[in-house]
Amino acid sequence: MGPMGGYRSYPVVMRGLMRAFEHHGIEVVCADVTGLYSNLSSSDVRELSLGRNPGLEVDAIFAMKPSSQMVQIDLPLIGMHVGDVSEIPEDWKIAIRAERAAVAPSTWMADVIRREVGEGCPEVVVANHGVEQEYLDAEPGAQTLPPAFSFLHFCSAGVYPERKGTPQALSAFQSLAMENRKVSLTLVVSEKRRALKRLLGALDRRVRDRVHVHVSPGGFSPAAMIEVYRRHHVLLAPSRAEGFGIQPLEARALGIPVIKTRATGFMDHDDTDGVYVVSTGPFEPAWGGMGEAPSLDEKDVYGAMRTVIETYDDIAGAARDAAGAMERWSWESTTESLADRLKEGTWTR
Questions:
Q1: Residues 191, 146 share a domain
Q2: FRET label pair with 180: which of 21, 74, 210, 229, CA 20 to 30 Å apart?
Q3: Nearest of 106, 28, 39 to residue 343 by alpha carbon
Q4: Does residue 155 sit in the same domain as residue 60?
């Protein structure tokens, strides 16, 4: 079977899938264009992206977000579709109807696929995104914390910061920082897009020096990412839309408290000790004119941040104690049912 990726924000997903397939004894050839597992030549990758089979001796193609062009290849197609709002593009629907099976990273996304594709939708299987073993093997709570109470927030790699709740996170932090000088916020982003620059420019000058932007175009290795987490007290993830949401699971595996919602893909998370859940409101029109997403009130985010500061010793202790239970979110565990279906061979030749 040959998986093929092509979306820059998924190197962690591709790496996790490849390791999990190897663990389950499934031989794979990957044409991921990020280069992490580029076992195929660049010409083969190009041929596949154009919907042509370059003579690959594989049983099926496992593709990340396949385009409608790929339905033309003469191999069974299995697509993983990672969406975060209540509608999916038309070219996705074309590709999905031509697939042998569709894989979704959350039960929420699986329901969206079934509803949106309608007649002709193939079997949809849920394979949750997992946590890489490096996080599970790390010592929980081994942090090197700064004097200021520090929040860590991951911004969207796309053009819409609303997805990750970044406008609400920044506004809530500003309110908090105006009354508490010993707080800081780190934003991790692949690039400073115009929308994010506009949000940062709107911050009060008295708090701007406590908002730090870490631009990482190529992403982080697990070891480097673990060090980033360990320099912060809390992960702030008030997302309004998630394909699944890996960062809260990574933080929890490290014994670091998390502030998050239960929106869209987050609904599969088992939010227990060490997690403070921010409520979201009714669904409303989403950014970019595509579908709907739950609303989010910055006052609720502010309240969560303040509560976690006031109760930090208790919530941090609970997070450390709960870290050992995160093994169930390893890639090997979350892909087990998918691996079993692939071994049955019903989706391949």
A1: yes
A2: 229
A3: 28
A4: no
